């Protein structure tokens, strides 16, 4: 289990470095997708399957499609991008170094991790979330589903073109 953690951590770090160092924006987005998938792997290792699935659907799916559309719409390339000034680069290095020192100072003191309560071991499982939604929170769940349904019908009605009458 610990080897899987180190594997996902290495993939996360390497792909995050590729995000900021890639020359092509498309390669950067692909590396970010790999980073998000490795973070979802961490969620699975933490026994939070629901959070992993939501992370894959929302971030890896929807947000990355949005990023790709924006990148393609802007049509970024090196010829149109202005070069950063030397002072901007120095400020970025100083800010990154200060952030690194802050992280090192925070982790040097050690982390206090509480033991897992056996009664709460199923908190992140999909079955537990489903039971909570359909048992304890059934009425708010149904009201929100009716609200989403009415929003979809309203969006279709607004987007529908009316036939011209002659």
Spell out the key features of this protein.
166 residues, mainly alpha, Four Helix Bundle (Hemerythrin (Met), subunit A), flat
Helix and strand topology:
Blueprint: H1 2-21, H2 25-45, H3 49-74, H4 86-108, H5 126-136, H6 138-159
How is this structure best described in words?
This protein has 166 residues and is an all-alpha fold. Among the domains are: 1-76, Up-down Bundle (Four Helix Bundle (Hemerythrin (Met), subunit A)); 125-156. Helix content is 74%, strand content 0%. It has helices at 2-21, 25-45, 49-74, 86-108, 126-136, 138-159.
Overall mean pLDDT stands at 83
Shape: flat
Which class of secondary structure composition applies to the elements? mainly alpha
What can be said about the biggest beta sheet? none
Percent in helix: over 70%
Under CATH, the homologous superfamily of the domain at 1-76 reads NADH-ubiquinone/plastoquinone oxidoreductase chain 6, subunit NuoJ
Low confidence ranges: none
Strand content: under 5%
Radius of gyration: 23 Å
Q: How many strands appear in the DSSP assignment?
A: 0
User: Number of helical segments?
Assistant: 6
N- and C-termini, Cα separation: 71 Å
CATH topology of the domain at 1-76: Four Helix Bundle (Hemerythrin (Met), subunit A)
Which architecture of the domain at 1-76 does the CATH hierarchy give at level 2? Up-down Bundle
Highest CATH level, the class of the domain at 1-76:
Mainly Alpha
What are the secondary-structure elements, in order, as H or E?
A: HHHHHH
